[in-house]
Write a structure and sequence with these properties.
41% of the residues lie in helices and 20% in strands. The chain contains 28 helices and 33 strands. The chain is globular and about 90 Å long. It is an alpha+beta fold. The protein has a domain of 136 residues: Neutral Protease Domain 2 (Neutral Protease, domain 2), CATH 1.10.390.10. Helix 4 packs across helix 5. The strands form nine sheets. Strands 2, 3, 5, 6, 9, 12, 14, 15 and 16 form a nine-stranded mixed sheet that branches. A five-stranded mixed sheet has the order 18-19-20-22-21, covered by helices on one side. Strands 31-27-26-33 form a four-stranded mixed sheet, with no helix packed on it. It is an enzyme of class 3 (hydrolase). Pfam families: DUF3458, DUF3458_C, Peptidase_M1, Peptidase_M1_N. Its cofactor is Zn(2+). InterPro entries: Aminopeptidase_N-like_N, Aminopeptidase_N-like_N_sf, PepN_Ig-like_sf, Peptidase_M1, Peptidase_M1_dom, Peptidase_M1_pepN, Peptidase_M1_pepN_C, Peptidase_M1_pepN_C_sf.
């Protein structure tokens, strides 16, 4: 194996480090081919750990000098570790100096110190710092950092690192320096440096406490006009965190830097956040509403890490959700609070749950299933997953549900009072929330609640109701179960908060009253399921109710309830909970899709959608009380991935054919309503990415797509012509790209000239060209044309496999996001996937491992897909020089 024999790391084996590092002084002489790094550390023995050698991690470094207290010392190498044995005895601190060199220009992994577009960047989470200098590369070693950067001033006029700039000046030979001091102790994964030709948007702000701060967003020259939204999002984040949780900005300055070569979305390095350009650059000509929304969310996420991740960090990488799950929850709350109206908040919640269901639920059911706090890993990069992030956020959300919004804020306050400046565990966080709310259900049930951290898999909540007209009672039985996952056969009952309401047949809310309650209550009530089965009996119920279960998606579970169409139509039309209104529409579509998928009818002869469903959707489109954004969500069919997860055996081509038939039928039957929706929403005035305007553009875009799909069947040329005209005349990227997508999705001949024109317009805008690539690789597969198109796209002059954004725009859009085109009966899609995983692994194992996840669920596939997929995975696994990143993924995929 290229990286040596893979060894599993186990959470149970955690021990504190044998040494602490108190201070770190780093001096960098930056050169693309040979950067020199002088690392001076002050260390002391950990008196709680038995005396042992100091073992420092390092990768791809050239070691030149090691000094202890200024004197040369003996050392040895053990694999990638520098081992020092003859160190000073006793509790006193000692100085260790290490001088190394590295080659940032050849660092294609984009971990550690690397060069992108003639500028220097770093990415140290999770274990990248060891590629910069020898160090105790683990999150529980927190030190104070002083960093001096030296470089050619003409080539690298901007020199940035964590903390506050304390000194800068000129050096000989046209060089200059900058000295940075971070006043807060941090683990090495939060270290960062940036050097290059950059320009900045600056904003000075004053906090609630009256302190002045400088905010800066650094980008390449020419991109400054695309930074206003990122800066506004940063200012909103600072204000929100101080208002909601009393957490102020704790540095003189806060910096964001954008780079086009980045494995992740962004990184929360203390005071110097490094971002993928995708989550910084936006103006109305180049970015869609979704881009604006994502920038707001990601800027918020990384800023909120300043406290939840930086000030309090993880004891070990098994606790990753301590910072990521909590911070995803915080960025979701931030976006909901900024959305304002209840409807806009609900749209955000639905979008978040849709990601959870289409990405995390399959992960829970696949070979890479793991608890929110994993018990072991081989390569930590493989555990930056939707389970850690999105499911972790749902676990935090359930805590807030159980203690209330104010109670959760009190818990956060106690958490920082106890643990500021420490590296702690998920248990410490949960304990603080519970201790701040001693009378809450969370405090009472904390040991059981923490099963959410230790048990993998998605629980199923089975519900059934029985109405007794004579007794005027309604009995709701709730049962929970969780299927086995790798390494966990049996699951104990979870704590599941169930938000519940009851409606009558006309859709009016019914009061809720259990037998032991003195009086009835209206609205939503939270019932906490803790046993394998429990029964709720409501009294004084005058008519058979329609239960609205799991309102606002109060727990990350699959709800099994045998709703009738009549009940679902009632919920869709009348439920006061927007999430369950949307969910009712999804269930109606899902039932019809599954019936058609599992049948053998000719889709051209037998419609998938019946009149009841079409009438319901017609009413949604025509309802003047519903926001456009909500309508767009209801009218969007469940994805092919989500449909596949509902089946035991998956025929991807049948799923694709059924969903396309549903799309076409919905387009044709509702043509009049789609035309009205287009006319009502196509003009949103001057561009603003606010929820109302964005929602109208989203609905207009869906309507235009549906009208072009309907035209494909009828042979009409009017709507494709209108779409092409809209594409040419659009005043913003959202409208332009929606029109282009309508032509591509409908397969109209005007798509080709539109794509050509789009590329000509935006050939110098890398992020826009990513969209151009992605749209073609993710297009519906009409007769198997997509894979040849993808192969052709990879030969395009603008394609660059080494750039993660560009690789994702083509290869991931095809393999991971286009199942109808990827799962070919001739196995050509799987052959392409295997070739690309192997090719990428030689360049960037982290990106390759993400691509390898595209076949996680191969065992569910019907033949001939199943055997062909297994053969492709086995071919990758057979490579002798695979990275640990990819080997872990494919080995687990092949395991029984």
């Amino acid at each position: 194996m290229r990286e040596g024999q893979a060894t599993a790391i186990h959470r149970a084996d955690y021990t504190a480090p044998a040494y602490w590092i108190d201070t770190v002084e780093l001096v960098f002489d930056l050169d693309p081919a040979k950067t020199r790094v002088l690392n001076k550390m002050r260390l002391r023995r950990n008196g709680d750990v038995a005396p042992q050698a100091l073992r420092l991690d390092g990768e791809e470094l050239n070691l030149a000098r090691v000094l202890v207290n200024g004197q040369g010392t003996s050392f040895k190498m053990d694999g990638n570790q520098l081992v020092l044995e003859n160190l000073p005895e006793g509790p006193d601190a000692f100085d260790l100096e290490i001088f190394t060199t590295c080659n940032p220009a050849k660092n294609t992994k984009l971990m550690g110190l690397y060069v992108s577009n003639d500028s220097f960047f770093t990415q140290c989470e999770a274990e990248g710092f060891r590629r910069i200098t020898y160090f105790l590369d683990r999150p529980d070693v927190m030190a104070s950092y002083t960093v001096t950067l030296r470089a050619d001033k003409a080539k690298y006029p901007v020199l940035l690192s964590n903390g506050n700039l304390v000194e800068e000046g000129e050096l000989e030979d046209g060089r200059h320096f900058a000295k940075w001091v971070d006043p807060h102790k941090k683990p090495c994964y939060l270290f960062a440096l940036v050097a290059g030709q950059l320009v900045a948007r600056e904003q000075r702000i004053r906090s609630r406490a009256g302190k002045d701060h400088l905010l800066q967003v650094f980008v390449r020259p020419g991109d400054l006009d695309k930074t206003e939204h990122a800066m506004n999002s940063l200012m909103a984040s600072v204000a929100w965190d101080e208002a909601r949780f009393g957490l102020p900005l704790d540095l003189e300055r806060f910096m964001i830097v954008a780079t086009s070569d980045f494995n992740m979305g962004a990184m929360e390095n203390k005071g110097l956040n490094i971002f993928n350009t995708k989550y910084v650059l936006a103006n109305q000509a180049t970015a869609t509403d979704a881009d604006f929304s994502n920038i707001e969310s990601v800027v918020g996420h990384e800023y909120f890490h300043n406290w939840t991740g930086n000030r309090v960090t993880c004891q070990d990488w098994f606790q990753l959700s301590l910072k990521e799950g909590l911070t995803v929850f915080r960025d979701q709350e931030f976006s909901q609070d900024l959305a304002g109206s209840p409807s806009a908040r609900a749209v955000k919640r639905i979008e978040d749950v849709r990601v959870l269901r289409t990405a995390q639920f399959p992960e829970d059911a696949g070979p890479m299933a793991h608890p929110v706090r994993p018990d072991s890993y081989i390569e930590i990069n493989n555990f930056y997953t939707v389970t850690i992030y999105e499911k972790g956020a749902e676990v935090v959300r359930m805590m807030q549900t159980l203690v209330g919004r104010d109670g959760f804020a009190q818990g956060m306050k106690l958490y920082f009072e106890r643990h500021d400046g420490q590296a702690v565990t998920c248990d410490d966080f949960a304990q603080a929330i519970a201790d701040a709310n001693p009378q809450s259900d969370l405090a009472r049930l904390l040991p059981q609640f923490k099963r959410w951290y230790s048990q993998a898999g998605t629980p199923r909540l089975h519900a059934s109701g029985q109405y007794d007209a004579a007794a005027r009672t309604y009995t709701l039985s709730l049962t929970q179960s969780c299927a086995p996952t790798p390494g966990q056969a049996l699951k104990d009952p979870f704590v599941i908060p169930v938000n519940l309401g009851l409606l009558d047949a006309q859709g009016q809310a019914l009061p809720l009253q259990l037998a032991h309650w003195a009086q009835a209550e209206t609205g939503t009530r939270t019932f906490v399921l803790t046993e394998a089965s429990e029964t709720l009996t409501f009294v004084n119920v005058d008519s058979a109710p329609v239960p609205s279960i799991l309102r606002d998606f109060s727990a990350p579970v699959v709800l099994d309830y045998a709703y009738t169409d009549t009940e679902l139509l009632t919920l869709l039309a009348h439920d006061s909970d927007p999430f369950n209104r949307w969910e009712a529409g999804q269930r109606l579509a899902l039932a019809r899709a599954l019936k058609a998928i599992q049948g053998d009818s000719d889709l051209a002869q037998t419609p998938v959608l019946d009149d009841a469903y079409l009438d319901a959707m017609r009413q949604v489109l025509a309802d003047p009380t519903l926001d456009a954004a909500f309508k767009e969500l209801v009218l969007t069919l469940p994805s092919e991935t989500y449909l596949a997860e509902q089946l035991d055996v998956v025929d991807p081509q049948r799923i694709h054919a059924v969903r396309e038939a549903m799309r076409e039928q919905l387009a044709t039957a509702l043509q009049t309503q789609w035309q009205q929706a287009w006319e009502d929403n196509r003009d949103t005035g001057g561009y603003r990415p606010d929820p109302v305007s964005s929602g109208r553009r989203a609905l207009a875009g869906l309507a235009l797509t549906q009208l072009c799909v309907a035209a494909r069947r009828s042979g009409d040329t009017v709507w494709p012509g209108k779409a092409f005209q809209r594409f040419k005349d659009a005043a913003n990227m959202t409208d332009r790209f929606n029109a282009l997508s309508a032509l591509v999705i409908s397969g109209h001949e005007l798509a080709a000239p539109a794509l050509s024109r789009f590329h000509a317009l935006f050939k110098n805008e890398a992020l826009v060209i990513d969209k151009w690539f992605s749209l073609q690789a993710g297009a519906p597969d009409h007769g198997g044309h997509v894979l040849p198109a993808v192969r052709q796209l990879m030969t395009h002059p603008d394609f660059n496999l080494r750039n993660p954004n560009r690789a994702r725009s083509v290869i991931f859009s095809y393999c991971s996001a286009n199942p109808g085109a990827f799962h070919r009966s001739d196995a050509a899609g799987y052959v392409f996937w295997a070739d690309r995983v192997i090719e990428l692994d030689a360049i960037n194992p982290q990106v390759a491992a993400r691509l390898a996840r595209a076949l996680d669920r191969w065992k569910k596939l019907a033949e001939p897909y199943r055997s062909a997929a297994r053969e492709a995975i086995a071919r990758v696994a057979a490579k002798a020089d695979l990275s640990n990143d990819v080997r872990e993924v494919v080995t687990r995929a092949l395991a029984d």
